[in-house]
Amino acid sequence: MNQSSDILVETSGLCVHFPVKKEIPFERRKYVQAVTDASIRIYRGETFGLVGESGCGKSTFANVTLGLQKPTAGSVSFEGTDLGQLLPEQLREKQKQMQKIFQDPGASLNPRFNVLELVGEPLLIRGGYSREQRKEMVIEILRQVGLSEEDLYRYPSDFSGGQKQRIAIARAVILHPEYLVCDEPVSALDVSVHAQILNLLMDMQKKLGITYLFISHNLAVVKKICDRLAIMYLGKVVEYGDADRIFANPLHPYTKALISAVLSIDENASGKRVTLKGDVASAINPPAGCRFCGRCPVAREDCRERPCELMEVEPEHFVACRYLKEQEV
User: Fold this and answer.
1) Residue 126: helix, strand or coil by DSSP?
2) Contact 22, 36 (CB under 8 A)
């Protein structure tokens, strides 16, 4: 893997800014800088994790890679094709290879549709399938996700949260997409079913060869299932690369704080809890330099003014921290 020919999704200098409503006439237009200068590669067949606190730009980044949101600057390529250069009908053709699983399965399923209609809807939209073919394909995918033919004519309200997410997964993978965004797929579920849904996703990936972009707050989950990952803070990627290397040797102060907060049942586990102080900077008027500088325990005077670029500290491990760079000199 990890060769240019295996790149499925690639972003280069990606920026997404949203305009803020003016409070007074003739006021200068302000923008929420949701994503800034994000350059990431996602390789075919892998599970790529995207981690960060709420509001850091994870879902916005994912929506841009799906072609659901246009970037303000930079580019997004899918299978080597720049999505921004495609005509609407060409983009829709590419989007046939993409799907998304949402955080709240109950909100993502139409309560007026039964399971056959919900899971079979992508087949109906794609076209080319008879009613009997659609029914047979729905039954087969339901079996793969742990449901049965008896569930065909039941409605979402008849199912538990975990079962609803199984229905959502079945609907997302029935057309065998190349790329699937999992936007916190287990965070709204009971802890008792987390492992079941994660194991299901991993099994479906093995069977269908799907590439996952896995968005999560749960670093324990990310460590278990992700091959590579990116840590985002206030719209910028601060650490990026191989998941095992990052967990074994976290280098950015923000990454260290996140990993130190993961609960462990290992009584021999070492590590001191890193507590962050200060407030998150505004996404409308972030620091010109490092966006984490206001909470960073090792920040220096120039961190706020001079931008921090990602640098490779070891193979497949990139960090954006000037303090680390100065320590190496």
Assistant:
1) helix
2) no
Cross-strand bridge partners of residue 31: 19
Return the beta strands (E) in the chain as ranges.
7-20, 30-43, 47-51, 73-78, 81-82, 98-101, 179-183, 211-216, 228-233, 236-242, 311-314, 317-319
Count CB-CB contacts under 10 A for residue 252: 26
CA angle (129 as vertex; 124, 135 as ends), nearest 5: 80
Q: What is the DSSP string of 260-274?
A: HTS----TT---PPP
For tokens 């093995």, what's the residue?
206
Per-residue pLDDT of the chain in tens (329 residues, 90 and over written 9): 444 459 999 999 999 999 998 878 877 889 999 999 999 999 999 999 999 988 899 999 999 999 999 999 999 999 999 999 999 999 999 999 999 999 888 888 999 999 999 999 999 999 899 999 999 999 999 999 999 999 999 999 999 999 999 999 999 999 999 999 999 998 878 888 989 999 999 999 999 999 999 999 888 889 999 999 999 999 999 999 999 999 999 999 999 989 887 755 455 555 677 778 878 888 898 888 888 988 888 888 888 888 888 999 999 999 998 777 554 43
Tokens of 79: 């299978």
Token output for 134: 């659609």
The tokens describing 329, both together, are 């000199």
Exposed e or buried b per residue across 159-169, where buried means at least 16 C-beta atoms within 10 angstroms of its C-beta? bebbbbbbbbb
